[in-house]
Fold each of these.
Amino acid sequence: MSPESTGQNEHYLTVFRRGFRTWRGNRPFWAGLFTILGGLPIAYFPYANMHLGNMTIAMSTTAGAGSLIIGVLLVTLGLTMWFHHIVRVFAGVAAILLALISIPVANIGGFIIGFLFSLLGGALSISWVPGEAKSGPASEGAQGEAPRMPEQDQGFHDTAEAPRKPLLFDVAAEGDGGSHRAG
């Protein structure tokens, strides 16, 4: 067994954490999380009752159904950002519009908390772009172009040393110590 192999004796939490980091890095995770966190107070506050001693304060308004619909739609849009990230721009625009509509409809947008989280989640969703594959000499060779040799190896060699083969991977990409691009 080589030292580079992960082996079969890794703890299951380590394997789960790596898998979750990979899953999280391939989609607008934080945008979905903030949108879900914004939808919860918008849907909750119109139906909440606070108890102060013997007195009950009800936050119920005539727009309780509208608040519930807006909150459920924001939670649904957050889950859509996670599991169907192709429509992230639509989901982001819809989350921003629902956040703006929640100000007059849902108790000042869930007492500003839900409004701000939903607005932030929608903006993050619109601005998120999937990472591009790194292009290197190996990918150029696959597209029909021959990989170029470094400038020092071109030409004649007056020693017995054979010309070096081009590297098939990008050395600069490994400079980060193998850490994930998102963290």
Amino acid sequence: MFATALGDGAELRPLEPWRAEEFLAHLDRARDLVDEHIPFAQRATDLPAARALLTSYAEKQAADGARIYGIWQDGTLVGGVLFPKFDAAHGTCEVGCWLEPAGTGRGLVTRAAEVLIDWAVEERGIHRVEWLVSSANLPSVKVAQRLGMTRDGVLRESYPYRGVRQNTEIWSVLAPEWRQRPGAGR
């Protein structure tokens, strides 16, 4: 997948290791918002760590596994979407996201996640797409709802984060449901 227009000056592109400096600058802007619910930004606090994180995703993608993409708004990296888990053999994957404050409120994550899910379902034959989210992360829960996902359940107090046990909601959409959603095949 190369650059994909998301509308309104936004585009989705692969987030590759050679973009580590730009990625780190973005995470520095996003860190407070992202770290509120997930430790993703804590994994890249300097340039070598940012490069290592992107390299690990490049290696996983080369092995037909996890993948990571950036969302650029008017030429500035403002967030991203990823497949933290991608298992084509079993027809399942997980989609996730993060965003810096400058990118919020524009529907960027929803549009970018739609691109990823379309590709996973239509090109790779994925049957089940999951979205795992802390119950406290209401913006991410709302994305799952906008994507037409079903809340399968809650893993109560499933992981500790910042000294507090967090509930994890599991949302999903199946390929037949994805294809039948309003606006599918636009």
